[in-house]
Amino acid sequence: MRRIALVSLAVGFLLVSCTKTSTPPADAGGSTFALQVATTDLYAGAPQRVQVGIYNSTANGVELLTGGSVPLTLTPTAGGDPIDGTATYVPATGTPSASTPTLTSPADARGVYQLEDVTFPSLGVWNAEASFTVDGQPQDLSAAFVVADKPALPAPGDRAFHTENLTMADASKNPQAVDSRAQDGAKVPDPELHQDTIAGALDAHRPILALFATPLYCQSQFCGPSTDALEQLSKTGPADAAYIHIEIWATYTQHKKVANRAAAQWLYRNDDLTEPWLFLIGRDGVIVDRWGPLFDPHEALRELKKADR
């Protein structure tokens, strides 16, 4: 199985051919800003969140733009009206956030800028354009991305899969397949997130927050913080809800990578598997919302409380 690092926003930002970088000013010391669309599986006709990452490559390494907000414009390349808005910074849980856009080391702060309630009227290639000023230098960035006619992954309005994911009952056999952090004899660090199966919670008509993430092997470094955020939600959210973490990998070695069946069922499409994803499922078994690659815990809790009614 091949997994593409579409959200490698915190480990060097693997550039793709559709990303346009800014032209550095003469005194910039060779720094180069770039924008990357972090959200995958965008489609036409329904409201979604669009998340982008902004970074600066220098001779000393990569810096991320974090904090505050930036103007973001989405424009269809085939012609049509642009979608304008303000993208607000969403930090990885446990990392700081400044009030204004600031360049930081990925070790100190990392996250994405999110534009809410975006409904694409047409499919095809679109451009994301962001303009901002940092350290006194104006930057104008753009990156192309694709909008499909329908989602490839489970999306709001779809019925959730009746999935028998691994739980703590399976941890004695292969704890790393339950949570990749359970290495070398370590215990599963968040057992409360591995008590329920999606199938069991659906049968009990419970609302569900299901996070598909691999904390140890995550390319974006978003999976661990997202799993921590779900653990916090399990302690503060509705007691009747099911809070479930699904590890991506059953086996992960240099020579062999095998996805868990639950992760493959939800996320494996066209020889690609992207993560992390958080799904909110209502009592009726229908997907209410989804977030990827990052989510705001306050927003997720607010939506969960609505689904718990």
Overall outline = globular
Largest sheet, described in full?
A: 10 strands, antiparallel
- Euclidean distance between termini CA atoms: 40 Å
Content-based structural category:
mainly beta
State which percent range the strand residues make up.
25-35%
Question: Which architecture name of the largest domain does CATH use?
Answer: 3-Layer(aba) Sandwich
Count of discrete domains: 2
Average residue-wise pLDDT: 89
Radius of gyration: 19 Å
How large is the count of helical segments? Answer: 5
Ranges where pLDDT stays below 50 over 5 or more residues in a row are: 1-28
Share of residues in helices: 10-25%
Provide the succession of SSEs. EEEEEEEEEEHHEHEEEHEEEEH
Description:
The strands form 4 sheets. Strands 1, 2, 3, 4, 5, 6, 7, 8, 9 and 10 form a 10-stranded antiparallel beta sheet that branches. A 4-stranded mixed beta sheet has the order 12-11-17-18. The protein has a two-stranded antiparallel ribbon with strand order 13-14. Strand 5 and strand 6 (83-91) form a beta hairpin. Mean pLDDT is 89; it is low at 1-28. Helix content is 14%, strand content 34%. The protein folds into 2 domains: 19-147, Immunoglobulin-like (Sandwich), CATH 2.60.40; 168-307, Glutaredoxin (3-Layer(aba) Sandwich). With 309 residues, the chain is mainly beta. The N and C termini lie far apart (40 Å).
Describe the protein's topology.
Layout: E1 19-20, E2 32-37, E3 48-58, E4 61-66, E5 69-76, E6 83-91, E7 102-104, E8 111-118, E9 124-134, E10 137-147, H1 175-178, H2 198-203, E11 208-212, H3 223-236, E12 242-246, E13 249-252, E14 257-259, H4 261-267, E15 268-269, E16 272-273, E17 277-281, E18 287-291, H5 297-307
Parallel strand pairs: 11-12
Antiparallel strand pairs: 1-10, 2-3, 3-4, 3-8, 4-7, 5-6, 5-9, 6-8, 9-10, 11-17, 13-14, 15-16, 17-18
